[in-house]
């Protein structure tokens, strides 16, 4: 049996026996659950298919709703398992429709009260993007990143990654048999609320390779949550040896957190650069499986005042990326208490983006969303002035292109 014991509320109380949840499990994980309660092997394949459909296609939260499964087995499942999702401990909705959820994961042992992570949903005209986390904290120590100052607690499990999407679908009424909550953004093309996923929340996804790979397997399964691989972007600070395997085994879009064009500066901003310098990183990008003009790599570049934002650096960026099918994403730095950096001025960002744009790259400045709720998942949030008309145009162009790519 695979039961975990939650921490007792008081020393005198009996430990609470927690039934494990089946939500977020792979097919192999569901098969193991059925084996655990004694379902014979020859029956399991069919049962896994049924569970899969109810859990991921319909999004049911109660075994009793699984009408294609006999009552006896439903009761047996309910006795041993749940379909619980991580607890939403806070939900904030921004005036622009951005939603931020604080999720508490199930405790992993008697002393664990359950790790908390953030997940952010960003609705746009033609898509809805969910920003998910891959770890609790991060072992890397990028100097401009708030997550980098927090110690790594642990990798998220496959289930904990998948259930971030399930919570979002649940809260948005995005499962077929559930209706949209009042005031929700409804896609006007009959599509789903969450159409895209970016691994840009907490953590370095390529340091949790197996967990992320298996989660993407569940998320993209066309009998269930059914999200296209081209609608999923994995962002990495540059774990070079895992970039090829990412393309081979996950087949998603790739984003690289570049942020500097010289090793000396990148060593400081992204210390992992000392292990995998820019030259090696770009070489891995050139060899990214499936790379083409229709499947370009996004290079993220955080704009730090007086640090990496000169005209010369913009020109060097263009030179470095020559020959790589690329998009450049300029991110206004999102300051946090105690940081030594400031965000570049808007004139500077515009000038930088103009150089990049003239060289033929769409270089959208990431639109800051959910400002009123501090939607800081992966620092997606940032303080900003209004974008210029040109920057806005470029952003729209990029969105049109990305949509074209995704179809
Ligand atoms: N660890 C991965 C993914 C999570 S970080 C990575 O580094 O790519 C997601 C993105 O947010 C990265 O591009 C990261 O560089 C950026 N980021 C981190 N801190 C930021 C901040 N304070 N302001 C703006 N962007 C930030
Ligand atoms: Fe980790 Fe990414 Fe933050 Fe660097 S930028 S500390 S890799 S989460």
What do you see in this structure?
This protein has eleven helices and 13 strands. By secondary structure, it is an alpha/beta fold. It has two domains: 27-80, DNA polymerase, domain 1 (Orthogonal Bundle), CATH 1.10.150; 106-390, TIM Barrel (Alpha-Beta Barrel), CATH 3.20.20. It has a nine-stranded mixed sheet, covered by helices on one side. Helix 4 (158-172) runs parallel beside helix 5 (209-220) and helix 9 packs parallel to helix 10 (346-358). The structure holds S-adenosyl-L-homocysteine (SAH) and iron/sulfur cluster. S-adenosyl-L-homocysteine binds at residues 144-146, 200, 204, 235-237, 257, 300, 302, 331, 333-334, 378-379.
Spell out the key features of this protein:
binds S-adenosyl-L-homocysteine, two-stranded antiparallel ribbon, binds iron/sulfur cluster, 13 strands, disordered N terminus, single chain, DNA polymerase, domain 1, 407 residues, disordered C terminus, 32% helix, nine-stranded mixed sheet, alpha/beta, TIM Barrel
